[in-house]
Amino acid sequence: MNSESLLNLHTEESLDSSTYLYSVLLNQDNIILNANRKFSQELFFGSNKLEGSHLSDYIFPQDFSKYELLLKKSLSKRERSFFMDLRKVSMDGVDFEWTRWEFFPRYDKNKIKEIVAIGHTIESTSIGKRKKEELFLKQNEFIEKMTFDHSHDMRARVANIIGILEIMGEDK
Prior knowledge:
Elements: H1 3-16, E1 22-27, E2 32-35, H2 37-42, H3 61-77, E3 82-89, E4 96-108, E5 111-123, H4 125-168
Antiparallel strand pairs: 1-2, 1-5, 3-4, 4-5
């Protein structure tokens, strides 16, 4: 076995047992031929039929359309790989998680043989909620400070005008 074969074997074993990365092998028709444990476990509602099912069953339709366009573009230019963000259906089958993927088309002569896809989650819902809450609190603080500053600035100006009018007296 040459060093490249050993590297590929080691990489494939690492991807299969990864607890962070998703790894999926697709055929030219986007049918799942193989998926690592992490991807299979997170899609437990389809894990019995995961292999042999279509990739579009696990991602949003708009994202799958975008994927198809990027794949066509990649194939026409014979690019080594392409990146994209996909919304993967979450465990409950209702919500979704944002994931970032890199797709590696493998060619046999001039035709696509298979596609290796490697991805990971880029934002969990709880992190997103926390960020939104923090931004909302900062925005409220800013609005309160701005309102306080403006009301006091305005009051000071009006008080100055009233003071000048009193000094001038009624007859002027």
